[in-house]
Design a protein that fits this description.
Among the domains are: 49 residues, no CATH class; 128 residues, Four Helix Bundle (Hemerythrin (Met), subunit A). The protein is built from 10 helices and 2 strands; from the N terminus they run ααββαααααααα. Strands 1-2 form a two-stranded antiparallel ribbon. Helix 1 packs antiparallel against helix 2, helix 7 runs parallel beside helix 10 and helix 9 runs antiparallel to helix 10. The protein is rod-shaped, with a radius of gyration of 61 Å. About 12% of the residues have low confidence.
């Protein structure tokens, strides 16, 4: 179809060029032109004139359109934000992290947290190791206490919970009570004997030393654990209160009975300790 139109247009153009304008042509030449283009779409039979052809020029604005090179490809714009996944914020992130180092805020926070945890663990380890170090002075005191019968560190700490009148941390209470008994100082010996029995029962858990407790309270606590131990302690408490508060003198016979009862109490405690072990 396009070839035919082009051929007709060429014929029409040739006829026009040969014969000239229709208005100035002779009837014979005009008839010749009309016969040549009468069946063409480019000829208007009513107007007896050629239909004008409107041509729209096509402008090729591609780069290098007059050369053999292809148009330049569009440049792909890279995103400033790194793609998620694949360790995007790691050290291999192409230098897009903090200060261009590839280190993201999440990585920085994780490293700081790890350093704090390690530092805390090391600090606690050093602290506990320091607490468990053997103190040479304390060791020498412990050896000296074993030689002269003085109370050890643990016993001294428990003595601090005794009633004020019974607190003697510079001596072994039982040993000192026995020495005073032999010297006939029964009023002083009963104080140390009472303190010795309280420490003994506290050590095996038959009672619990506390400065706010009364003597009768200690007797009740020991009775719930062992009635024989409570009976011995009750006799010592009665003699102590008569001597210390009532100012009644303790006789040699009375203290001898108390000392014998103390021996039975020590054997009872030792038996219970072996059973518990």
């Amino acid at each position: 179809m396009h070839l035919r139109q082009l051929a007709l247009a060429g014929t029409l153009t040739g006829a026009l060029l040969t014969a000239g304008p229709l208005a100035s042509q002779t009837p014979q030449s005009r008839s010749y032109v009309e016969d040549a283009v009468s069946d063409s779409v480019w000829y208007d039979a009513d107007e007896r004139s050629v239909v004008p052809v409107e041509v729209e020029p096509v402008v090729d604005d591609s780069e290098h359109r007059d050369s053999r090179w292809l148009p330049k490809a569009k440049r792909v714009r890279q995103s400033a934000t790194p793609a998620a996944g694949g360790g995007g914020g790691g050290a291999g992130g192409g230098g897009t992290g903090i200060f261009g180092s590839g280190l993201s805020i999440g990585n920085l926070f994780g490293w700081l947290l790890l350093i704090v945890l390690i530092g805390t663990a090391v600090g606690m380890l050093i602290y506990f190791l320091g607490k468990t170090e053997v103190d040479p002075k304390a060791l020498s005191r412990s050896k000296r206490n074993k030689l002269d019968g003085s109370p050890d560190e643990q016993t001294i700490e428990r003595m601090k919970h005794l009633p004020a009148e019974l607190r003697r941390t510079d001596v072994n209470l039982r040993t000192e009570a026995e020495r005073l008994m032999k010297e006939g100082q029964y009023d002083q010996a009963i104080i140390l004997l009472f303190g010795h029995q309280l420490l003994l029962l506290d050590h095996v858990g038959m009672l619990r030393l506390n400065r706010g407790k009364t003597n009768r309270r200690y007797v009740r606590e020991s009775r719930s654990a062992n009635r024989d131990a409570a009976t011995c302690l009750a006799g010592t408490v009665a003699a102590f209160e008569r001597s210390y508060f009532g100012r009644h003198e303790i006789t040699q016979r009375e203290f001898a009975d108390l000392w014998q009862a103390n021996g039975e109490l020590e054997r009872t405690v030792e038996t219970q300790r072996e059973v518990a072990a």
